[in-house]
């Protein structure tokens, strides 16, 4: 006689499972509430950031330089461990999903060593369009513009602008295909 395995049991065994299963959704909701209380950031980040759209989510831990240079659109999702160095504006468009441990870096340093010795630095804005998916561990460098509907592969280092609808991956990130 075969017993039916729950979706949670399948997940824990590394098998395919249905993430929208009510038991798993309840577990996630309970964890989200616990994390909200543990990190006590609900509302606090909104007070500091330059702009936060409706239903934007930032999972702690989250790190930034100033906060007031970060602008999030509606339904933006930043997963655990994101770092945003916001010495210049960082804009993230509606519906964009940012994976865990992603770094978005507007901070830059002079190439001239004598200027660096004087502790000088600068910044260049980063703009991420709408409905972009940035995979885990990606690094977005200063001055980059990522177009709407683009995909950034996990672990990629984005050194140049990414056109709308293009998927890039690698170090440095290069286009894989359109659409």
Automatic annotation (TrEMBL):
Residues 8-54 form the Maltose/galactoside acetyltransferase domain. CDD domains: LbH_MAT_GAT. It comes from Novacetimonas maltaceti. The lineage of its organism: Bacteria, Pseudomonadati, Pseudomonadota, Alphaproteobacteria, Acetobacterales. SMART domains: Mac. The keyword Acyltransferase applies. Keywords: Acyltransferase, Nodulation, Repeat, Transferase. GO terms for cellular component: cytosol. This is Nodulation protein L. The keyword Transmembrane helix does not apply. InterPro entries: Hexapep, Hexapep_transf_CS, Hexapeptide_acetyltransf, Mac_dom, Trimer_LpxA-like_sf. GO terms for molecular function: acetyltransferase activity; O-acyltransferase activity. Acetyltransferase implicated in the O-acetylation of Nod factors. Belongs to the transferase hexapeptide repeat family. It comes from the Bacteria.
């Amino acid at each position: 006689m075969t017993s039916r395995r729950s979706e949670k049991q399948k997940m824990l065994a590394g098998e395919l499972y249905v993430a929208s299963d009510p038991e798993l959704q309840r577990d996630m909701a309970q964890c989200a509430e616990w994390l909200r209380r543990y990190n006590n950031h609900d509302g606090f980040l909104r007070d500091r950031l330059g702009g936060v759209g409706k239903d934007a989510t930032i999972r702690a831990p989250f790190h930034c330089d100033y906060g007031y240079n970060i602008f999030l659109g509606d339904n933006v999702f930043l997963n655990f461990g994101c770092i945003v160095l916001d010495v210049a504006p960082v804009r993230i468009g509606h519906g964009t999903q940012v994976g865990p441990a992603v770094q978005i870096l507007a901070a830059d340093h002079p190439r001239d060593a004598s200027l660096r010795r004087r502790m000088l630095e600068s910044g260049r804005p980063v703009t991420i369009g709408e409905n972009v998916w940035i995979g885990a561990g990606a690094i977005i460098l200063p001055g980059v513009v990522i177009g709407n509907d683009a995909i950034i592969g996990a672990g990629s280092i984005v050194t140049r602008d990414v056109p709308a609808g293009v998927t890039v991956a690698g170090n440095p990130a290069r286009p894989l295909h359109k659409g």
